[in-house]
Amino acid sequence: MTAVEDRSISLPCNVSFPAGDYAISLVLWFRGDSGVPIYSLDARNGSIYKAFHFTDDILGTRAYFDLTSRPPLLKIAPVKKKDEGEYECRVDYRRARTEKWRAHVRVIVPPKNAVIKDAQGKRVEGIIGPFNDGDMLALSCEAEGDPIPNVTWWRDSTLLDGDYSVTPGGIVRNELLIKRLHRDHLMSVLTCQASNTNLSVPVFRSVTLDINLKPLEVRISTVNRPLLAGQQVELVCQSSGSRPPARILWWKGSEKMSNISYTRNDNVTISKLTFTPTIQDHEIYLSCKADNPVFSNSALEDGWIITVYHLPMLRLSLGANIQHDSIREGSDVYFDCNIQANPWVSEVGWRFEGKTLFSDTKTGIIISNQTLVLQKVTRERRGRYQCVAANVVGEAESEEIILRVHYAPVCKSGQKTVFGVDRLESVNIRCETLADPSDLTFYWSLNNTFERIELHSFITNGTVSKITYRPRTRYGYGVLNCWARNEIGIQKEPCHFSIIPAGRPEPVKKCEVLNNTMTTIEIECEAGYNGGLKQDFHLDVFNYPLETLEANLTNNNTPSFTVNNLPPGTTFIFAIYSLNSKGKSHSVALTASTLPTPEKRTAKIERPGISPVLGILIGIVGALVLLAILTVAIMRYKHHEENKGPGEQDIVNKHHTPFQKDIDEGLDSDTREPDVIPALAVDSQEKNGGIETGSDSCQSAHNGKGRPRDFTVLQSKSFGTTSVSVPEDTQGMSYSEVSGTASQVSDAVKPTNSPIDFGFYNKARSLVFQPDQEDECNITVETPLMEPMSYMPERHGVNSVINQRNKVSTSV
């Protein structure tokens, strides 16, 4: 009997089996000459169908004696080569003679695998290669089995080689040799087949040949026509027959072209060359070459002579003796512009950072034909340079050269230089420099006017150095100096950082109203010192007639504000101040009014009512006008009497005539209206018919306690200086000042249509003003709700000089 390894075999026990279940007592299977059964069936104690089955260690679970088959079968699966041999089946009966049956089993070992190897003995499978067109191919196929298998080579269904040999190791080998590969072998399948029995399917292994092929043709499909220099052109070249697809190279003379795109389809390759002809391309041979890189002699070529109409071609270079890496500040640099043009250029120019350069010997720029000279170059001359030229075709420009100028470190502008710091408070200071080369060594020092202290604890990153500084005592404040060094030299001017004690910000300044409409007012100021800290700006808007806070605005950047939605025709007081983490600055106040609404013309004219405040103001102004007129009349009368001589009449000094308000003894300073002038001071002195000024000539009619002194008549032959003052309010209310001669009082109190500027407005209705200047004797008239005016006496007469109204910005 024959069996195939790893399959199954059924060995019959061809003995007679009686019909009774109890006829057989024992069945034993033996292999070879061994006296030990390999399989046992023990039915001595019962029915054969309930007998016990035993196998040895060799068969194990692979064997089973099937009693249901006729004849009964010993089934072995899977069969191994070691199962080969002589088998004996012995049957012992209860009442009959023992029977035996013998059979020889042969186990065939089919080829397990077919192995294909190349000429170097390397195992190959699948697609192999690629091989070159015309090469020789050598392959071998190996297989082993028992008995020896047949190993053959096939191409599709065609037998290529049926001869094989057996090695001493029992391996069967078939060597296939193809002397010359050609296009027909491309992607052909070669199969090695091994078989040693018809009981099993032959094993096989296949490989597919990949072959490199040379291109068959190449041609430029674009029409040969003249080209214009500077104008982009596209040329097309096509090649076919190559595997892999042909590599197409474009050549302009001996120059290999770039900017090429490819399209591949099967064995056809299309290449497109996009380039811009130059003047050197005129009468140059342009070719398209297609080849397969794996072949040394596979190139095919097509080409033609190109004709180029061109602009000037420029090439910019540094002078022959100049090393680009050694240029530093103070060096002389020159550029050469090499020109090739047809026809020749009519002009040559130079550009720096895209802007035209002109010859200027004062700044060291000299242009001579095709040469640019930069004398004693500075770092500001770093950048891109190029030359331009033009002929009848047009204008052309050269490539750019970036000029690098090495220089010692300098401090970068725009850095924060003032730092407000409390004692024991840390601040991070960043020192940035500009330098080339940028490999720097930094130094720090503190100058506190007493000594210079070197600092060593800082970090450096390229052109930036950072230090964390903390003043511990008052000597820790001063100026931190930061400077650096590179291979060019040391920084000439250090970067200075002022370390000052942090404090409240200073008030804003130069405030003005930029624009005002019926509902909007724009205000802009100039920021004061921020106290060394970040500051914000605030605006409080007070409605003067209603005595209320109208709005509050904040600007985190600049003291500029636009106040909207204001009522028209209303006066407002604006208080501006700044704020930092240390506190608030003094406020600066100014006034402005929104424009009134346009008047409506109607048939009936209604007279506007007079408010109580306006009535009081009119009363005050009227009283001041009467006082001024009376004073002028007295002064003129006195002057007229003096001209008559001492013998003509007695001198009557009416200049010191008190007002009715002044002689009212029933009034007290705490109960008087603030709009009433409470005191009058007359101070005059005569010497040789003229006016004498001095510290002894100034007297005051005010007693310093809010009440007037007794009036004293002073003889005088000239105009005196009259001042009216109101004592300072016990609650801190102060007023604007008006000073002048007696004859000018009437002019000083005239009402004006211009808006009144106030310094500050609070809930107590306090308006703070600062006068432009005081008179020589510091004698003033303090009048509430008036604008400041000053008057200058003349030697031979009295002229009223009214200062023009200015907006008053007052620190509050």
Folded structure, characterized:
With 812 residues, the protein is mainly beta. It is 5% helix and 40% strand. It has a six-stranded mixed beta sheet with strand order 1-9-8-3-4-5, with no helix packed on it. Strands 50, 51, 53, 54, 55 and 65 form a six-stranded antiparallel beta sheet that branches. The chain starts with a strand and ends with a strand. Residues 645-812 have low confidence and may be disordered.
Low-confidence stretches: 645-812
Instruction: List the strand order in the largest sheet.
Output: 1-9-8-3-4-5
Give the amount of beta strand, in percent.
Answer: 35-45%
Helix content: under 10%
Distance between the termini: 128 Å
Subcellular location: Membrane
Keywords: Disulfide bond, Membrane, Repeat, Transmembrane, Transmembrane helix
Domain Fibronectin type-III: 504-600
Membrane topology: Single-pass membrane protein
Features:
single chain; 812 residues; mainly beta; six-stranded mixed beta sheet; six-stranded antiparallel beta sheet; 2 helices; 65 strands; disordered C terminus
Could you give the topology of this structure?
Elements: E1 2-4, E2 9-12, E3 24-31, E4 39-42, E5 52-55, E6 63-66, E7 73-76, E8 85-93, E9 99-108, E10 115-117, E11 123-124, E12 126-132, E13 137-143, E14 150-155, E15 158-161, E16 165-166, E17 172-178, E18 189-195, E19 203-212, E20 217-220, E21 227-228, E22 233-240, E23 247-252, E24 255-256, E25 260-265, E26 268-275, E27 285-291, E28 300-305, E29 308-309, E30 313-318, E31 333-340, E32 347-352, E33 355-356, E34 365-368, E35 371-374, E36 383-390, E37 395-397, E38 401-403, E39 407-411, E40 418-421, E41 427-436, E42 441-447, E43 452-455, E44 459-461, E45 464-469, E46 478-485, E47 495-501, E48 509-516, E49 521-526, E50 536-543, E51 548-555, E52 560-563, E53 571-580, E54 583-584, E55 588-593, H1 612-644, E56 681-683, E57 686-687, E58 690-691, E59 721-723, E60 737-738, E61 740-741, H2 745-748, E62 781-782, E63 793-794, E64 797-798, E65 810-811
Parallel strand pairs: 1-9, 12-19, 21-29, 40-47
Antiparallel strand pairs: 2-7, 3-4, 3-8, 4-5, 6-7, 8-9, 10-11, 10-13, 13-17, 14-15, 14-18, 16-17, 18-19, 20-22, 22-26, 23-24, 23-27, 25-26, 27-28, 30-31, 31-35, 32-33, 32-36, 34-35, 36-37, 36-38, 39-41, 41-45, 42-43, 42-46, 44-45, 46-47, 48-49, 49-52, 50-51, 50-53, 53-54, 53-55, 55-65, 56-59, ...
